[in-house]
Amino acid sequence: MLKKTLLAAVALGALAGAAHAEDLKEFRIGILGGENEADRLRNFQCMVDKLPAAIGVEKVSLFPAADYDGVIQGLLGGTLDYAELGASGFAKIYLANADAVQPILTTVQTDGSMGYYSIMVARKDSGMTKVTDIKGKKLGFADPDSTSGYLVPSVTLPEALGAPVKEYVAETGFGGGHENLVLEVLKGTFDAGTTFGSGVGEFKDGYTSGNLRKMVDKGILNMDDLVELWKSPLIPNGPVVVRTSMNEDMKAKFKKFMMDLPTSDPACFSAVQGGEFKGFTEVNVDFYKPIIDARKSTIGG
Questions:
Q1: Which CDD domains match (predicted)?
Q2: CA 143/CA 157 separation, integer angstroms
């Protein structure tokens, strides 16, 4: 009797799982905060248009969060199906629930590298030219869950400064995302701030991709107004993640759609990624282990 009950329970569970997989009519995309919401929605509109036919859903919905944590909590709660995260954001999810999401792809820079940089900028008219010039000044970070905007500077700046960051500068704060941070540096709210870029190409162009390049392309930043004070060691490009419990067939279709995107629709690929990239490559959790370990030891989760 017990055996029959167990078998029935297993069968019902399998049916429920199959039904859940078949019933996914809406594919939910989380978009990180830190950039103007209208711009984020516009950049991802091509996904709304193209994905339904590619993966077999009726509707694709966009959820632009106010900050990084909004997307992180949505992925942890199972209310989002896909997002593109920084490595630190993924580490936060992994440390909270290692089974919540699955990293499947990351971008490849135009020079073939699989990383990018945290870049500290200041106003060109500030008189600062190197990282040690931030002594006694106000330093802004992008977001507490940003890899380039907070985690990596927290870990690597002390060596460059020869002292803990909070002992070296007068004050630190957060800019509310990368775009806003740079605007706050330009306004003088912060004397310097950390954002990100590919490090490929020229600083005067905002590099080939990253926040600075996006702001230049949108016409809201003139690179002549900024000076680069510091560049971090290479950071692993953030992952494309999907909800682990998603139907395997849909995962495969979505992955193929993304892998094909650089050639099937280069404009869509560039809009979603925010600049020039060579394409995607496959990754798994192992690629992000150094960042997971850094986050665990520095922030604790």
A1: PBP2_PhnD_like (cd01071)
A2: 16
